[in-house]
Amino acid sequence: MAAPQEKRSSEERKHRSAPNGAPASRGQWGRAWEVDWFSLASIIFLLMFAPLIVYYFIMSCDQYQCSLLSPLADLLLGNRRLSDIWDKTPPLTGRAAAIYGLWVTFQVILYAFVPDFCHKILPGYVGGVQEGAVTPAGIVNKYEINGLQAWIITHVLWFANAYYFHWFSPTIIFDNWIPLLWCANILGYVVSTFAMIKGYFFPTNAKDCKFTGNFFYDYMMGIEFNPRIGKWFDFKLFFNGRPGIVAWTLINLSYAAKQQELYGQVTNSMILVNVLQGIYVLDFFWNEAWYLKTIDICHDHFGWYLGWGDCVWLPYLYTLQGLYLVYHPVQLGTANAVGILILGLVGYYIFRVTNHQKDLFRGTNGNCKIWGKKPEYIECSYTSVDGTKYHSKLMTSGFWGWARHFNYTGDLMGSLAYCLACGSAHLLPYFYIVYMTILLTHRCIRDEHRCLSKYGKDWKRYTAKVPYRLIPGIF
């Protein structure tokens, strides 16, 4: 969708904008005010089993050569007990704690104390101090956008160590992968618990807090919209982008180094995974200012879902392809490698160009050209709770005329390419495409629910004009 950002009343923290002048109802900006039984059951399930899922995947590679079914078969047939598996699991070590502590501290320093210089020397890059979207309470936060700079500094030091200083082995991440998992879990739970306590007793902005009265929901989905320490340290932006996403490419490089150490070569599949996921990571940091307008920043509160998820779920499960290739090196045929590369690059192209079309349309209020001609759109309006009527536009041409979330389609194509690079011998590396399909489909539904409530009959006109969500002619 491509509706320009509008100024909203601070009362929207309590009430949703009413579609086309209809009576206002209680607000859904961000997470819910009330918890239904299905949401509560889902949250309790995730709180109980998400950490076990991560452990299971990593343990499967460490003890069962990345077979997802073998551990279950061993347990069901009585060949092994849970205690046997746990006893073979590497424990938390002082070395891992030191590595992880230094890593997070270094990223905090780069984030909070090193102003961005990349926007001064890189044409087209938007960095430095930028404004985010208006919060439900009407606050516009400022952010120091310096993720690309942090990524560059970190990786320059990594390669300098690998080829010159030799302070530590490039395989250090892989060699301490499970002990580092315990460190990441500790940080994820500490940050999430601190965020909840902070929301109750010393929130950054009390008007941007939501309380359901249900401990589990508030803990997972968060209370504060934008918890901060000081002027610049924003929990949501830091943990969404650093340390997990900066580490993503380092983790893959460590996997490649381990392949070289074990087999004397780095396979073309490992190179593909490093290149395609590296493009995704670099795109994230190049467009970090744009990220301030996405669902994670504009709608989600900061709780366990983001705090633990960004510390543990993201770095451990988004990098499964590289981990798998350490245990099962795959040398692809030339045709397969080229096909997977093309799929990944085309997916990235669709993802990036689709988002660019939306941003261009928003930034010019429709006075631009998409694919060489003036874009088509639907005029729409909504009325805020204070009675003010706003007008907006929903684009129905370009990639946005093909499907309402065609940027997600490109993202899924890239995700599939990562998985295909691993061959077809095991299920484990395909977890990512399954997870991303569920995640992005759910985001489609969340986003469209908000838009229907906001635009009412105008949204129905839009969906009649663009009937498909992700795949033209199918879904």
From TrEMBL:
Upper lineage is:
Eukaryota, Metazoa, Chordata, Craniata, Vertebrata
Q: Which PANTHER family match?
A: 7-DEHYDROCHOLESTEROL REDUCTASE, DELTA(14)-STEROL REDUCTASE
Q: In which pathway does it act?
A: Steroid biosynthesis; cholesterol biosynthesis
Q: Does the keyword Lipid biosynthesis apply?
A: yes
Q: Give an example GO biological process.
A: cholesterol biosynthetic process
Enzyme class per UniProt:
oxidoreductase
**Annotated protein name in UniProt:** 7-dehydrocholesterol reductase
Q: Which domain of life is it from?
A: Eukaryota
Regions crossing the membrane: 37-58, 97-114, 148-165, 177-197, 302-320, 332-351, 415-440
A Gene Ontology molecular function term for this protein is: 7-dehydrocholesterol reductase activity
Q: Where is the composition biased (Basic and acidic residues)?
A: 1-14
The free-text function statement in the UniProt record for this protein reads: Catalyzes the last step of the cholesterol synthesis pathway, which transforms cholesta-5,7-dien-3beta-ol (7-dehydrocholesterol,7-DHC) into cholesterol by reducing the C7-C8 double bond of its sterol core. Can also metabolize cholesta-5,7,24-trien-3beta-ol (7-dehydrodemosterol, 7-DHD) to desmosterol, which is then metabolized by the Delta(24)-sterol reductase (DHCR24) to cholesterol.
Q: What is its main location?
A: endoplasmic reticulum
Query: What gene name is listed for this protein?
Result: DHCR7
Record keywords, A-Z: Cholesterol biosynthesis, Cholesterol metabolism, Endoplasmic reticulum, Lipid biosynthesis, Lipid metabolism, Membrane, NADP, Oxidoreductase, Steroid biosynthesis, Steroid metabolism, Sterol biosynthesis, Sterol metabolism, Transmembrane, Transmembrane helix
**How is this protein situated with respect to the membrane?**
Multi-pass membrane protein
User: What segment(s) does the record annotate as region Disordered?
Assistant: 1-27
Q: Does the keyword Cell membrane apply?
A: no
Q: Which reaction does it catalyse?
A: cholesterol + NADP(+) = 7-dehydrocholesterol + NADPH + H(+); 7-dehydrodesmosterol + NADPH + H(+) = desmosterol + NADP(+)
Give the UniProt family note.
Answer: Belongs to the ERG4/ERG24 family.
Q: Which GO terms describe its cellular component?
A: endoplasmic reticulum membrane
Q: Where in the cell is it found?
A: Endoplasmic reticulum membrane
Under Enzyme Commission nomenclature, its number is 1.3.1.21
